[in-house]
Amino acid sequence: MSNLIKLLPDAVANQIAAGEVVQRPASVVKELLENSIDSGASEVQLIIKDAGKTLIQVIDNGCGMSEIDARMSFERHATSKIQETTDLFQLRTKGFRGEAMASIAAVAQVEMKTRRVEDEVGSKIIIEGSKIKNQEPVQTPQGTSTSVKNLFFNIPARRNFLKSTPVEMKHIIDEFERVALTHPEVHFKMVSNGTETFNLPLGSLRQRIVGVFGKNFNQKLVPLDENTSIVNITGFIGKPEYSKKTRGEQFFFVNKRFIKSGYLHHAVMNAYDDLIQQKNYPSYFIYMEVDPSTIDINIHPTKTEIKFEDEKSVYAIVNSAVKQSIGKYQVAPSLDFETETSFNVDPPKLGDEIKIPQIKVNTDFNPFEREQNPKGSIKGSTGKSSFELPKRSVDQQSALVDLYQTNSSITIEEESEKEEEQELVEVESKQKFFQLHSKYIFSQIKSGYILIDQNKAHERILYEQFLKTLSTNEGVTQQQLFPISVEFTSGDFAVLEEIWDEVQLIGFDIEKFGNQSIAVNGVPADLRQTDIPTLFEEIIEQFKNNKGELKLNTRESIARAMAKSMAIKNGKKLRDNEMVLIIDQLFACEAPYFSPTGKKTVITITLDELEKLFS
């Protein structure tokens, strides 16, 4: 019997490694940009076509490579960053495992041109699917230019898993921003389909943040600075009043490497406790410098997660630094509860006569002598009115009683999912709807009473309306008197481009207004008065959550996002006719008893259940 275990061919091994390293075009962008930074480049240009599916090109003016190094860079586990095991615990560079270029070459057509400053001519290499097609001398500027064409050309199944162009473009922008924010000393450019998306000259960190997220961002930031023996922290945090519904502007960097950390995010959010609204997120750009031997950055293939040696201490320091910055720059209002304001008087001037305070007492006042005046107010013996009694006649008292005894009713048919007998739920007349705590709608029925959550009920109503509108293309637009301009970050604008058609179908009349802005010329006809920029923030945030966590299709996801964002919020006082309309529309829905997220919209309490509460 022959032996069964054999070494994999290099081409197959590279494709397996590519499954970890190259998940989408953004993965290639990340690896190439990091290589340029490690080469010492002061200028880096990223060129993209078709969201990286056709072309990803990175050009830098770094140190370049010799002919042999250029060839070796495409071999597996070939790297200049580490020589022995101990080097893994002293890493200061970006890429170090030596799999990136080999993995990229395994799933794409790659052309590299590179030249060192001391060489007269450079080297050109063409590789397709791990096979070197050509290597020859070439005239090229100092540095390296790497072109990755037709990603996954030899793995059609992987290419089919790529998302739409706006989605892939958003991931590319995310990776570009993370590298650009880490290195303000490098001039970055990004060009997509011939259009310049970013042009970020070298400058300070604050200038880089403003360059990435827009000039209006400058007024939103306050600096962060904390030095300890465990970690040194610098950067910027956003003022609480500029917190947003979206979560796209939260960044942690450790030793100039972007990381994700829910644990440290909690430390920041805890520092903002009671300063921002629930489900709002502040912006923060937090840069941490630690001893490389106290962290492990090799626990995840994309190196976006790291392990701290003393994680609890880092949490406490981050939390303290953010709180200190908020207080130091008077971002939050402060009150001195220990100061007695009644003693805050100016000292007497020289020569002023000091008078003893006089106390005036009405000796004729008798609290036991009261009289009812003809108008219904109660007077003390002084004759001055203390308070007014509510004026209600006997006829009005009777009218209130009659309100509960009205016999007219609206019949609503409730269908059981288990095909049980249909039960008629009789809701009393329109005058019998009451709002509780500006959150619930209360109404009597023959068997007891019902409570309706106004927010969840309206969500269900809007969700089904939007689904119908998206299916029938019947959205109605109400034109604005003046267009409203809304500015987005690059990532959020890419998300908006993905749902552009659906947003228009629902009734928004929008057009592009600059690179990352839109002009809103019209809104859905039934849209209540609202803050349009905030509404778009909420729609984008909800859409990202629905797509990422629930894996919903685009139309269902946008319908949920719109319904969640536009539904009547708890705390909103409703008029009688509004409550009637909500109930009528709710029970006309296909699934009236549950919100789009599966939570109850209606609770019924029978008289028997109510009676038991008093037994």
pLDDT below 50 for ≥5 consecutive residues: which ranges? 333-343, 371-431
Tally of strands: 27
Average of per-residue pLDDT values? 80
- CATH architecture tag of the domain at 10-203: 2-Layer Sandwich
Radius of gyration: 33 Å
Task: Output the strand order for the largest sheet.
Answer: 5-4-3-6-2-1-7-8
Envelope shape: globular
Distance between the termini: 82 Å
**In CATH, what is the homologous superfamily of the domain at 10-203?**
Histidine kinase-like ATPase, C-terminal domain
Strand content: 15-25%
Largest sheet: 8 strands, mixed
Indicate the CATH topology of the domain at 10-203: Heat Shock Protein 90
Class based on secondary structure composition and strand pairing: alpha+beta
The count of helical stretches stands at 17
In helices, the fraction of residues equals 25-40%
CATH class of the domain at 10-203: Alpha Beta
